[in-house]
Amino acid sequence: MTLALTVTPFDPVAATPGARLAVGRLLAECYAYAYPEDPPMLPEREALSLTHVTPDEASRHFVVWDGPEGERALGWARLDYGLRENLHAAHARLLVHPDHRRRGLGRALAAALKAAARQEGRRLVTFGTTSKAPAGEAFARTLGAEAALPMRQSRLDLGAVPDTLLDAWTARPDADPYRLHLWERLPDDFLTRAADLMMVMNTAPRGDLDVEDWTITPEMVRAWESMIEEAGERCFFLAAEDTRSGQLAGYTEVLWSPERAALVYQGATAVRPEARGQGLGKWLKAAMLRHVRAHCPGARWVRTNNANENAAMLGINVALGFAPWASFTEWQVRLDG
Question: What is the DSSP letter of 97?
């Protein structure tokens, strides 16, 4: 029993493949418990994801083992933190196997995360919970966390979107100065422009989250592309270019895995403030749904998160047919001295 409650640091890169796979199984089993109707996560893919770190960021992992390292993981936690920006903050994930909850593992892992955050000079830790796993919200409150950004998780039935709506949203005026580009890997001549465009997400609502704007570099984008490819996923990036200037004015992106074909994850959608009011957001979303229908065999559902206060994007999604599916909350814990 004592061994099972011992939190130990874990280095996914230096660990044996067996130890990584043990943690990957834990992640997959926790996901299946929270989302039993979803296509299952693959433990091998989850194990590989443990080694992924964005440039200019670092991470620390902790595991509660049942027996020797690599035999079976009962709990896992990860702390990610930037090395150049938001130096006051870190983001955490924490999972305990459903069969081993209410034994103090979560509290022990949370204590390890707090200690690591303090060691790295952080005074704020953020993390997320979903209503699909109600125990997470209850646990957040025991930590004294603040619900900083409430979000709605929505789901779209791809087959239920009327073609007439997509026709209307993709119709553009004569002599339209905008044109669409679709990429899975960004061309070199658009890479810097795309990284700059992605930073428009800094204008998205953050609620009460005590975090600052972030910078996205071409190196980060290339690293993300490699991670996505290594994970067996496909990311479709659709951008609207203003042909008068060559500037990218808006984009939307989705993630899809042939191994979990039924489910598509809608990522960011953003339009530059000066280009809003011209229907670019609707055009991008409708054109992407058409692409998904044509190029993601087996896709049935699209899932997305939106801040409750983001009325503009919620309005577009509701008009497309996205329906409430769950709630998601970004929490923050302020660490004392």
Answer: -
